[in-house]
Amino acid sequence: MSQIDPAIAAIEDFRNRNFAQAEALAQSLLTGGSTGPIVFDILGGSQSMQGKCLEALQTYTKALLAHPNDEGFWQGWRSVFARIGSNHLPDLQGSCRKLLPLRRAELGHPLLEVGLLKEGWELLEADIHRKDLRSSDPITSIPLYRQGQIYIPKNLLVYTHKDYVFPGLGDVFLFWRYFEALPTLAKEITLLLPKGMAGLAKHLPFEVVEELTSQKIQEFDSRLPMQLLPRRFGFQISLPPYVHPDPSLVEVWQERLASYPGLKVGICWRASATGRSTSPENFGRLLNIPRISFFSLLSHHPQAEADIQVLKGMGAITDLAPYLADWSETAAAVQCLDLVITVDTALANLCGAMGRTDWVIYPSPGLPEMRWCGTSWYPSIKVFTAAGVDGERGLEELWELTLELVKQELIQRINAAPTA
Question: Sheet holding 358-362: strands in order across?
C-alpha cells in the first residue's frame, strides 16, 4: 500500500476538523524542512482553531518572514494578534519586532498597541504619504521640510484627514495634547476642528474654525493632518488634563446637578463605529445599584430617545441630551460627574483628555486599541475587557460578562464610600 503524502493528509485532517492531527502533521513537515505556504497555512490555522493563539502567532510570524507578501498570512497574523491579551505583551512585542524589517503598513496599529510608538507611527506616516499620492481630496499633506531642509511655512492648516488612520471624533481629543505646540511649526496657524468642538479650543493662541471652503483651503502655504503630530513632536506624551471646560459652563452644570443624591455617574452605551455599541438593556442592569444617580450622556444618536425609554423602564436615569448642544457642554457636564462609564467612543476620549475618571468597556478577550493599552495616553481611564474569557463566545455574551465586571466594581465602590 502506498504511503499517503503527509501534506495531503494534513489538508484532509484540517478539512475534517481534526485540528490536533493536522497540527502534528504540519509541524512534522516544518521540522523536516518544508517551508511551503500550505504547511504554514495548515499549522497556523489548526493552532488558531484550537485556541492556541500564542503558537499560531509564532507560526504566522515565521510564515511571513518566509513569505512576506502572502496576504492570507497577514490576515491570520492580525487575527490571532487581536485575540491575545496584554498579559502576553512580550510575545506580541517580539513578533512585531521580528516583522518590522518588512515595513508593512499592516504592522502600524499592532506596533502602537504593544507600546512601540515610534516604530508604529513611522509605518503609519509612510502609509499616509502613499495615500496622499493617490488622494483626490483638496486637502493634501505637505511635509514641513523641503529638499532636506527644515521649512517654516507662513501659514499652516492643521486638520483631521478622513482617509487617514485615526480619523474619528475621539481621535481629535487624542491629538489635542499637541495643539499648544503648534505655533512652533509656522508663523500663522489655523486649526480646523469637527463641528461642535471649537468652543473647547477658544483659549488656544491661534485661529480655530469648524468650516473652510475649498478655495480658502488652497490658499494655505502648507497643510498638515493632525494624525502626523505625534511624530512631529515625539512621544514624550503630554499627560492630561489638556482639555479644559469653560468655567462658566461648569458653574451652570454644578447648579443643575446639585440636587441629585449619591454618586453621580454618567453612562453612554452607543458609539458610531460598528461593533462598539451595546443594548440599553445591558447598561440597564446597573440602574438598580443603590446610592447612585445615573445620567445619560448619549446625544445626537438616532436611537437615543427609544433607548432612554427602555432604560427608564429598568430604573431611575436622567437624560442630559437636551442640554448637550456641543462638546463644550458635554465637557462641563463630565467635569461635574463623579464617574463616566462608556463604550469606546469620542466621549471616552474626552474624559481621558480631561483627566476625569472614566471606565471604558471594551468587550473583547484580546488586546484593546492602542489608546487603551496600559492607558499611558489616558492615565485616568480604566478599561474593562473580557480578557481571559473563551474567545469563541458570542459578542453579546462578552458584553454581558464585561458589564457584570463593571457592576461588581461599582458595587464595591459604593460599599466603600461613607454614607451620609
Answer: 318-319, 292-296, 263-268, 339-343, 358-362, 381-385
* pLDDT recorded at residue 389: 54
Backbone φ, ψ for residue 40 (5° rounding): -65, -40
Look-up of cell digits 427609544: 306
C-alpha cell at 153: 511655512
What pTM value is reported for the model?
A: 0.80
DSSP 205: S
Number of residues that make up the chain: 420
What's the confidence (pLDDT) of residue 409?
Answer: 95
For residue 237, what pLDDT is reported? Answer: 66
Which has more confidence, 165 or 97?
A: 97
How does DSSP classify residue 161?
-
The predicted model gives 269-285 an average pLDDT of 88
**Among the residues of 234-301, which ranges form H helices?**
247-257, 280-284
DSSP three-state, residue 244: coil
Indicate the angle between helix axes 89-99 and 71-83, nearest 10 degrees.
160
Grid coordinates 507600546 are at which residue? 115
